[in-house]
User: Fold this.
Amino acid sequence: MLGAVFFDFVGTLITKEGENVTHQNIMREVLRKAGREDLDYVRLWEEYEAESSAMFKELAGKPYVKIRDVDTEAMRKVAEHYGFSVPDDFWEISIAMHERFGELFPDAVETIKALKDLGLHVGIITDSDNDYIEAHLKALGIYDLFDSITTSEDAGFYKPHEGPFRLALERADVEAGEALYVGDNPAKDCVGAKNVGMSSVLLDPNGTKRELWGNCDFMVSKLSEVVEIVKGLMEK
Assistant:
């Protein structure tokens, strides 16, 4: 019997497009504070994204290190390349911009509420620092909708390590076979869930991850479709 549904955060509850706008505005504010508004913030944002993505790819499944440190190091590499310094309050800038520009998928709230109406535990499992996820969820107005929030900081490991998934199951007091995980990354989300015995749903709005669908139990193009999957599983 299904007892819990967990969600990833970035790319699953909030859009990647909104995250891109957020990071571009972080770069604009960094350049403003550094007195380097002569530089092309979009170009530097692209370089920052490349640095950050490479660093996080290396961390997949490994022991947790603070995301603020990873992000700051990625920004430092870009700043060094262009001859300016990263502001001391970089992380505060980052959180403020996430609070301001984060964008939920249009059906996120209705999906969460529909699942809660079915009597399910609804939680988050995300690679995140605790201060970031709490501030972001509160700014989006959805912090209180979740029964549990489990981060890589809590678990001490990054997905797809089993640590975050097992900790979330413990907090929800459900067995792995009674839980469903919804994410947008087949390698980290679907594989991580599968490794502990959870079922998985891949959110792939544009069908761009088709070659990796085999890692996942279900595929959806929008979050609201998760509710129908859940109802079907609850009838079994």
About this structure: The mean pLDDT is 95. The first strand starts at residue 4 and ends at 7. Residues 13 and 104 are 6 Å apart (CA to CA). The chain has ten helices and six strands.
